[in-house]
Amino acid sequence: MNQQFMAAVNQICAEKNISFESVMEAVNAALATAYRKDFGNKEQEVEVILNDGGTFATVLLIKEVVAEVENPNVEISLAEAKKMKKDVEVGDEIRIDVTPLEYGRIAAQSAKQVILQRIQEAERESLYEMFKNRENELLSSQIMRVEGETIFINIENHTVQLSPRDQIPGEKYYNGKRIKVYLDKVVHTSRGPELSISRTHPNLVVRLLEMEIPEVIEGDVKVKSIARDAGTRSKVAVSSDDEKIDPIGACIGQKGVRIQSVMEELSGERVDIIEWSEDPREFIATALQPAKIAEVIIVNGGDDPRVRKRAAVFVEEEERPMAIGKRGQNVRLASDLTNYELDLYNLEQLPAFKEKIKELSGTDRRMDDADLGGEAPETEASIEAAEASIEKEEGGEPGHWGGLTKAIVNKLEKAGYKTLEDLNGMDLKALEGIEGIGKASAAKIEKEIS
Question: Of 75, 99, 129, which one is at a domain's C-terminal end?
Fold first, then answer.
């Protein structure tokens, strides 16, 4: 070996972010393997010692001193051992200098393969040690190369793959571009530890807000929940315990400069900041902005995960398209943000809805708007019965939805369907897979599109 070799070792250490000792261990193991291939066999125990300057290597063959030799590959007789070292005894180990003048071509190739393999193992171990305690962090990275739909990026001298499912739809990626990624977790695979990184995870938005907004990272403004449709729009609910702090204003910044920085990092994705409320009705109405909500009735609330949260939302006819949003995006994000399944109705349906609930609740007491806004009187059964009653009275939805009822149409529009033609080709099982559509509704839809 020479100075050029040592320079190459140092370069590997710098590029792969692994220790000098790890590389030299790999070199030692490789030279030992090369020696066995050209001059010995697999049974032999070989030790390689590199001098401090790395200019040459000493190869030592380790054998056990025995009274009677049974395996000459690993054993040596006491008489032979004493020729090399006078004070040796049975049971000792003796190291014999067997350094060859040069290695053969096959041995050199084997040494190269072993070195590369050991370096890869050391690199994976270094990757795990560096990132195992950094899950849920925001990481800076630079794109190294683009191969079809797969992006390879450099994170702190480690090459990491950004899979297509973790890329923002429509975002342009090119060599040298700097991007922020969210480290979801460090996972163990058959190929070793890998970083699970994402540009689409909702927490990427949260970490960007923390980076741009001091009040968020300091805890004066809290991110209570987030819903994201990566590449197009996100809704973030924030609050503050300090009455002097406006959580929305703190996030948006003067002339929108703070939130604009976040959106630029997300390639123009719109980020809506709304104020969180303990009152689910108020929170739901705010989450559906910019639509103006006339009334919200909580069907099932609480924190029991076994009970599906649900709310009925009433809007003016002209506000309905805005509440639903393009392909149902606005109501879908609001549902994710509030953790409520939201059913949209026209405001004119509200009196009949309330009347039916009063009838089904089995009480003659007067139920005003405040009562109906609470969680106690209503049950899911009563709300479904109220829906069915209204549908029966009003008949089917006219126009491009055929004879489907408004309640079914609401759910289809919420799922992003605009006309019956969008459902062509779907069988009964596929229709039942649409959120909010049960077997009975699926059968009605199938009948309309058949």
Answer: 129
CA max distance for the chain: 112
Integer Cα distance of 329 and 387 in angstroms = 23
First and final CA of the chain: distance in angstroms? 79
Region of residue 226 (phi > 0: left; psi between -120 and 50: alpha; otherwise: beta): beta
Is residue 123 scored above 60 in pLDDT?
Answer: yes
Please write the tens of the pLDDT for every residue from 331-347: 999 999 999 999 888 89
Has this prediction a pTM greater than 0.70?
no
CATH number at residue 79: 3.30.1480.10
Q: What is the mean pLDDT of residues 212-224?
A: 94
Residue 427 CB contacts under 8 Å (≥ 6 apart), including other chains: 446
Burial class (CB in 10 A: 0-12, 13-18, 19+), 317: exposed
Q: Are residues 114 and 137 in the same domain?
A: no
Q: Treating both helix axes as pointing N-terminal to C-terminal, what angle do 280-287 and 329-338 enclose, rounded to 10 degrees?
A: 150
245 within some domain: no
- The residue behind tokens 């649900």 is 310
Domain assignment of residue 291, given as a range: 278-391
Pick the closest to residue 207 from 226, 193, 194, 220 (CA basis). 226
- Is the pLDDT confidence value at 50 over 60? yes
Whether 181 contacts 143, CB under 8 Å: no
Cα-based angle 74, 77, 83 (whole degrees, multiple of 5): 115
Contact 237, 337 (CB under 8 A): yes
Q: Cα–Cα–Cα angle for 120, 124, 130, nearest 5°?
A: 140
Q: Domain check: are 318 and 400 in the same one?
A: no
Task: Count up the domains in the chain and report the number.
Answer: 4
Averaged pLDDT for residues 54-60: 71
The verdict on residue 372 lying in a domain is yes
Domain identity same for 64 and 78: yes
